[in-house]
User: What shape does this take?
Amino acid sequence: MSLELVKACNKRLVLIVIAIFSLSGCAVVYKTTGRVLLDYTYDEAVPYVLSMEDTEMVCAVAESFAPFFFSFANVTAPPDQIAILFYMASATCSESRAWEHELRYLRAVKEKNVSEAQDARIAQKRALKQAATRQVKGYYRLVRDFGEPGNECPKFRSSDEELYYLIGLLNGVQALFNDIAAEGSADVPLSIGMKVGRATNCLDSEQWWGLPGALRAAIWSALPNSKPDHNIDPYELLNESIELGLKQGVRIVQVLEAQLLLGQGETDRVKEVIRQHVEVTSQVPSNSSVALLDAIATVQLQAISDRLWTEATGTRTPIGGLGTFPDDEKDEEVIDIDDLL
Assistant: This one.
């Protein structure tokens, strides 16, 4: 072999070795960066997001950054607990779109515009399917991180883990409700309801704003065969849970109550839930550490109020009118010229 050929081979070998070390160096950098970013997210970003009251901003952050954070599963431990929260938050975006389509549907029905009504209903169900799909993915991240709910209780290492577990269970229940509304198009297994019902016993309802008990009551009401004892009254448990949540400044339990009552056609009782929410919110401040959950409750109850207003008048809840309804008795009718502009 000539000297020139040997030199050429050596150069190629050196380049190959450099390339290998460069690639492995990138992997180390990615892994280190991933751990740092995820640690920061768990320690700082998540608590900050949970303390926010701007649900639209949180929704936008979740939709935009979820793929970025989830990609770190390729270089470090899967961020399953962050995914539980991000799927919950991103599902609120889908639910918001579904509400807007529902209002469009109700206005079209009022105007007897059949094609517009049909189109709005289809769009609404698509958005609900997307919400259910995101929520059930959040539930499955819980399964991957904590194990199958409904069997043995996980050994929680901190209250933060209990919170992620609770949000994951909430994802499962909301996924069921949204999938039912979307005609089962998201294929959410009904068995999730019974598993969540059993798993809520792993959490102290008094510590967690009555939400574990409220989830249990919602499941027992929607799936009566899931009750361990047929003499249990789900609404009695629900009322006890609501009292806990109202006292602690986390009113998301009222959303479950309103959804159940609305599904049973109890419109007058739904109105009372919304009125109570407005009254209590003005008296008891939100729990600052989880203000996001309380803000989501207000947004979802306002969506129900918008539906009732639109059915009656063709327009949504007036500004500052949450807790009032078109059929409320008024001493005298006063027309505000600003409302006509």
Observations:
- DSSP finds eleven helices and no strands in the chain.
- Confidence is low (pLDDT under 50) at residues 331-335.
